[in-house]
């Protein structure tokens, strides 16, 4: 059983979570086909452990563009200063700082999924509020884009917990943050 705050995110092999235009369309060819039984990226197993989700405004907009809200009634907190309509009653908008809301998240939810994006992940790293990282390296080199790690955080140690390879070429590293 997972607990704490987990950054579970996909990145190109060269470290980008989106291309130069902010698009994640390059991920489509690596997603599980709806009619396949196999959970290629291990997503379904991970999602079963999640109590709530947090994401930034750009990630929220991308998720909305996919059509039906994919996270059901799981509580979702969107960090933003913009005005949005909630996709479901489970979506709440947060304009406070990460340091101000994390204690509440930790108190009410056992396992929080930090969905993205890169700016919000940096904020969580700066506050030392990520407990584990599940980083899926997608076998593509984008050459440019939005980097996951910008170096705007203190050095943090990682212990490798597990590595999983998939037939699609995706390699997932599961780390525990040690400090």
Total strand segments: 10
Largest sheet, strands/sense/barrel: 8 strands, mixed
CATH class: Alpha Beta
| Relevant CATH superfamily | Dihydrofolate Reductase, subunit A
Mean pLDDT score: 90
Q: What percentage of amino acids are in beta strands?
A: 25-35%
Q: What is the first-to-last residue Cα distance?
A: 21 Å
Helix content: 10-25%
DSSP helix count? 4
Rg, Å, rounded: 16 Å
Low-confidence stretches: 34-38
How do the helices and strands follow one another from N- to C-terminus? EEHEHEEHEHEEEE
Shape: globular
Strand order of the largest sheet: 5-4-3-6-1-7-10-9
Pfam families: RibD_C (PF01872)
Protein name: Dihydrofolate reductase family protein
Domain Bacterial bifunctional deaminase-reductase C-terminal: 5-171
InterPro entries: DHFR-like_dom_sf, RibDG_C, Riboflavin_Biosynth_HTPR
Structure explained in plain terms:
With 179 residues, this protein is α/β, with parallel strands linked by helices. It has one domain: Dihydrofolate Reductase, subunit A, CATH 3.40.430. The chain is built from four helices and ten strands. The protein has an eight-stranded mixed sheet. Strands 2-8 form a two-stranded antiparallel sheet. The longest helix has 11 residues, at 98-108. The chain is globular. It comes from Haloarcula onubensis. Pfam families: RibD_C. Residues 5-171 form the Bacterial bifunctional deaminase-reductase C-terminal domain. This is Dihydrofolate reductase family protein.
